[in-house]
Amino acid sequence: MTSFNEYNQDPQQFPFLSSLKSAWQAIKEEFSGFMAHSSAEEQGIAAQMMGPQSKTIRTKGAKKYSAFGILFQGYLIDDYIRTYNIEYPSCGTTEAATKVQALREQYFATLTQTVTTVNQANGNILRNVYFGTFHPGLDIKLHTNDNPHMYRGYLGLIVPEGDIAMKICHDKLYWREGEFMVLDHSYPHCPHNYTNCDRTVLVVDFFKPHKPRKEVTQFEQTQVAQRMQDNPYSLGVFGQSDTAREADFVTYGLAHQLEWDKALGS
């Protein structure tokens, strides 16, 4: 039986997640259908314009993590691009928003409808919803996410057997297909994938229900403004404050990771 605590929350506390859990097979099929039937150009658009890019989270070797999604800071991805006037090397704001809206509507209708319905019924509690894939060999350095206002839910979609897990504090947690894991990422954590297969989950960030909504909304607005100034391609998800203290590496038996930066280079 899973032992829940301050950083590993019981998903049943959050009934608004049940709609996503109930639709997990359809959501998985939408992801698999996109990966199997979309063109190289469409996959490039998803990776470049629909996925949060981090400049701070470090991983060993080549990039082994990919992500793209439909909701960021409570906005559908096309509305987010328009709201923040994001421009890309290949196209401007209007063209980028049009392209991602077309992909969202063509490939992710069930996910879009489910997320929209949940937010309409729960005061826009969902903030970010995106697919996160760990490719074989992924090993991310210990870090924290400066998100004290939200929890991060993971709905397992494609989870291979083997050593693919999330180390958070002193726990090692495993994803399960069709099940939610809900973590507080303000605690030190580092995931890995030591299998030969991809692992894909639906990442669902949501406001902590016990915190006053005005307080968390104001914090998000301030935080996202700074993150977008630092890196507009972060989509407000990652920022420069997403770091662990040196003491955390020692506390959780990962002091050797302090040498990673030397091996990784700039």
UniProtKB/TrEMBL annotation:
**What sequence ranges are listed for the domain Aspartyl/asparaginy/proline hydroxylase?**
23-209
Give one Pfam family, short name only: Asp_Arg_Hydrox
Q: Which UniProt keywords apply?
A: Dioxygenase, Oxidoreductase
Gene3D superfamilies named in the record? B-lactam Antibiotic, Isopenicillin N Synthase, Chain (2.60.120.330)
Q: Which protein family is named in the record?
A: Belongs to the aspartyl/asparaginyl beta-hydroxylase family.
Name-wise, this protein is Aspartyl/asparaginyl beta-hydroxylase domain-containing protein
Which organism is this entry from?
Leptothoe kymatousa TAU-MAC 1615
